[in-house]
Amino acid sequence: MATPYAKLPAWADYGLIPLINLTVAFLVSGLVVLLAGENPVKAAGILVSGAFGSGSGIGYTLFYATNFIFTGLSVAVAFHCGLFNIGGEGQAYIGGLGVALVCLAFDTVFPWWLNFPLAILASAALGGAWAFIPAILQARRGSHIVITTIMFNFIAASVMVYLLVGALKPLGSMAPQTRTFEAAAHLPKLDWLITMFGFKLRSTPLNLSFVLALVVSFLVWLLIWRTKLGYEIRTQGFSPRASRYAGISETRIIVITMMISGALAGMMALNPVMGDQHRLQLDFVTGAGFVGIAVALMGRSHPAGIIPASILFGMLYQGGAELAFEMPNISRDMIVIIQGLVILFAGALENLFRPAVQAFFGSVLHEDVRAAPIASGESH
Amino acid sequence: MDWHLYLGLNVLDSTIRISVPLLLACLAGLYSERSGVFDIGLEGKMLAGAFAGAAAASSFGSAWIGLFFAILVSVGFALVHGFASITARGNQIVSGVAINFIAAGGAVILGQAWFKQGGRTPSLVGDERFSVVTLPFADSLGGVPLLGPVYRELVSGHYILVYFAFLMVPVTWWVLFRTRFGLRLRAVGENPAAVDTAGISVTFLRYRAVMITGILCGFSGAYLSVAQNAGFVKDMTAGKGFIALAALIFAKWRPVNAMFACLLFGYLEALGISLQGKPLPVIGTVPVQFMQALPYILTVILLAGFIGKAIPPRAGGVPYVKER
Prior knowledge:
Chain B: It holds the Pfam family BPD_transp_2. By secondary structure, chain A is mainly α. Chain A has helices at residues 10-35, 40-52, 55-80, 88-106, 112-141, 145-165, 191-195, 209-226, 228-238, 240-245, 250-267, 270-277, 288-298, 303-326, 333-348, 354-364.
């Protein structure tokens, strides 16, 4: 590291480098498509047209994106505190229990606009509660939060299977799921939003939780960058020592951050459970908790980055379904690879191309920009 | 009380069979984590190994070639993890997550593209699959009371990889605690700067540790798809890599403890199968889901510090920067 590097301008740091990383991830995905004996360029075309080529495609894309906005925000909030919450999957799963309990109890009592806020509260509360034990163990006992949250994912899966084949299953039914909710526990669809732009479509699962996701994104931005709590969270994440010196209670901040993170993951359940399937099913989270990691890494833990990253992954999910239909050699598992490659290149290898880019900027830009040493501003 | 349900030969026998992939993966993780590289990608490497093993075994018609390819592919993934965490100094957890996904997706995509059986590999028959080893005198000694059946059922009649896995426990202990390489490996996980000062390459040591991890994960994967089962099916590791990780923590990063932790977790699963639907005295029927969750619950309790304290290698998870 002997050569001095230029400090990158913000647009390069937040725009160019993620873009390079993403491009490499997609190029490698293309290689996998090639290995599977299909044409990557044609595959990419089908992917994009499947996701955005029709009104229904857009509806589905945004529906999937809704899930990822919630889980992405969940991972991002924890990142800001220097915590890696890998338990979004389990927190969302348990959050679904909250949604289902509200819907089952009140779907014949209240109208949807009363059930919706109740379900939001219940999903957030249960998701947050599921993050509480890993949080308190990290804060008080120093148990590594990555390991405990992984363990809690598996425990959540067991709990939910136990409930869905037992207490929550209606009598006389064989399928491990709850009964279908009445209409008063269905969220309004947002199909009109797409038809407004002149697209025709058959019914899509896009629903009100998409709007909620956008509102929550704004609230998260407000929390992290415009409140005292957010400042404390970022201080803790940036330098736990400085935060201790400033008199911020480590236990308090870790527990609060993790519970917010868990609550955000829990709210993801609103979209599939209350918005689409109208019942609680086995494995309804389908990996959205893990996609949140990719989304948060791509979006640099900022809501303004998380929303487009979520839409990109929504596109991959929807377009991937079309792809599986068009190309027999490619199944939807292609998304899982792409997701892994994005996590690898945008996350673990995020600094791979940075020296080259910095050297490039160093040689192009004016001399006095060059002085800044690399040691400052290490990202995490 | 019907003790056969708890300690019958069939329960103990399936305990061994269930423990073996856990043990191999657990020992694999031990090398990497002892050298200061956290690895939550054990699951992915096992899965990749299982797929490569079954695919090669069926294509080349030999279980041993299958094993070779399982190791090759698993080491390849291990090197990606090594490159990300050692050379590129990236986040080791993130890298592990990435590897799990790439392996899970890749196995199914390539399996479907190559064999067109919905992500499965063709069923392995004959020499394509490992066969069980019958130890000498297993049948003739079978008549001896008590010890005879134990020898015949428990000790004899396993795949060769089972014996290899249990052999790796003392070998790992010996390597870690009785060789120069092992001393350096443990040192680099605790204080890499000291190792560096002594003129030993931190990078090379960690790469070697990560490669051993890859080799053992390859064995673990091959055991699943080329020995225990006749072929690869989607998601066949089903969280075993994470149970192995839990066992590693439960064992406090020590090889002999690792064996007991894996046997314990294997026994819990075997017990869960054996007790399914049968009521226990006093507590009544234990839900099978509870038995499945028990390894994870126990690990969390251990991590909470209620059963001793699990202290990870001090430099674990931190990329080593030579100069400041």
